[in-house]
Amino acid sequence: MKKNRFLITLFALMLLVLSACGNSDTKDTAAKEKKPAPKPAPTELILATTTSTQDSGLLDVLVPMFEKENNVKVKTIAVGTGQALEMGTRGEADVLLVHAPAAEKAVVDAGDAINYKRVMYNDFILVGPKDNPAGVSGNDIKAAFKTLADTKSTFVSRGDDSGTHKKELGIWTADNIQPAGDWYVSTGQGMGQTLQVAAEKKGYVLTDRATWLAQEKNLDTLKIVVEGGNDLMNIYHVMQVNPEKHDKINSKDAEKFVNFMVDSKTQDVIENFGKKEYGQSLFFKYTE
Amino acid sequence: MELLIDGLKKAIEMIFSGDREVFAITWLTLKVCLISSLISSIIGLPLGILLGLTRFKGRRLLLLFINIGMGLPPVVAGLWITMLLWRSGPLGDLTLLYSPTAIVMAQILVSLPIVTSLTCTAFQQVSDKMLLQIKALGATKLQTLAILIKQLKIAIFAAVMAGFGRVIAEVGAAMMVGGNIQGDTRILTTTIVMEVSKGNFDIALALSFILLSVALLITAALTFLQQRKRIS
User: Fold this and answer.
1) Which of A206, A287, B62, B100 is the most buried (most CB within 10 A)?
2) Contact A215 B95 (CB under 8 A)
3) Closest residue of chain A to B42, computed from CA coordinates
4) Smallest Cα–Cα separation from B102: which of B46, B162, B48, B28?
5) pLDDT tens by residue, A170-203
């Protein structure tokens, strides 16, 4: 008897789990059978983008809007710009939203991406310890980087081939500096985590303004030290992956997504995003 | 310390306010982990018993690979599954990447070796004398197996629990193959990583308590089954 009870419990547990796996499927099929589907099942669109658009919360607003209008299920994969572009060239994503114009140009020129459109911008800022030991300020980022290298002040780099990392490397190159040594810390992580490392290590870090505003409350050892220069512009582009290069690309919805992003209604949403919470826009409209 | 208490408060608040998203994420976590543990057990237990009780050519080599598999880093499993499921990969036509199924696949890959190896170890320790005695009493092969399974219940449950522990703790592979997509493949561990990177430590902490509670409930149920009085 006891043996039986034990076996029955085991069996019941398994049934429970099995029913759990089958659950959604049966519901789906049942729903399909009942009514001849008022609208077809949503198509899937893979959007490869940067962590800044996800971490700032912008995509949580835009993606549902797009999904509702077009009956598309958007799969947002938030990675660094480098990886997003690579996913595009490999045909693993359908549409890209990224922010590293120089690297993007190479992808567009190679014919891997088409329908390349400017979407929005904000700016990069240099953030550093509150007491600012290197004494950098103003809006000249190149001069500031030079000072940081000369004084060997702790600098925290993302080192993850993201748009922000590419921007940072571009500034070092413009200064003819090879950043290396104990003072140069490379985290290989996203913007949020890198900012936290900088706060702990009391280092300087280049960040996009959207992530900074979203995280400022946790970073009480840091403040903005350099901002506003022309070199600090952070421009986002949207583009669709060239369907001629790979099969399986959902180019129809990718094109819709590009058009959606540059649509004036969407642009207004972008510009208004964050105003309530942070008192200023996180992104500004910027179409051609 | 303050953060810890805030996190606990938030966790309780999230559970009792019926936060839809938290509930969906928890449910998906539970579903994915139970399915992968179940499949790992269905394949791993018989395989472990077979490896533990019988001797055949290539058995040691197989065992070696399974033992290496016990230490397979989840990110490696994640990378392999990702490449397998890429649109340009061998299984690309199934469009499984960035779906819960992909997470289940990666979790099976990391937990199956654990379940198999631990089961095999337990069955290998059955003494020859006992086997002889069972045989002498006239048991058929199937009866022998039944007796052994009863005898080794505790070890079998330990293997299942170890497998479950591995999958519920898993984050690297789930991030890679699942993509942490809102409302689709976002599970508790990947949500915690994301909330930390957003700087929302309170939410991350709250979710960690929910994750621990889920793990506790399941493990407690299994422990209860394991520790029931042995049937003589």
Assistant:
1) A206
2) no
3) A14
4) B28
5) 999 999 999 999 999 999 888 888 999 999 999 9
- Residues on chain A bordering chain B, Cβ-to-Cβ distance under 8 angstroms: 2-3, 6, 9-10, 13-14, 17-18, 20-21, 44, 46, 51, 54-55, 60, 63, 73, 75-78, 90-92, 189-193, 195-196, 214-215, 217-219, 246, 248
**Contact flag A77-B182 (C-beta cutoff 8 Å):** no
Do A218 and B199 make contact, defined as CB atoms within 8 angstroms?
A: yes
Any idea what the Cα angle at residue A16 is, between residues A11 and A18, rounded to 5°? 95
Give pLDDT tens digits for A123-144: 999 999 999 999 999 999 999 9
Closest CA to A241 of A1, A49, A101, A18: A49
Low-confidence stretches of chain B (pLDDT < 50) are: 232
**What is the ipTM, given to two decimal places?**
0.79
Query: Alpha-carbon distance B155 to B147, whole Å?
Result: 14
In angstroms, the Cα distances linking A177 to A90, A154, A173, A239, A273 are 33, 15, 6, 33, 37
- Give residue for tokens 């900088």: A198
- Considering only CA atoms, give the Rg of chain B: 21
Q: Confirm or reject contact between B225 and chain A (CB < 8 A).
A: yes
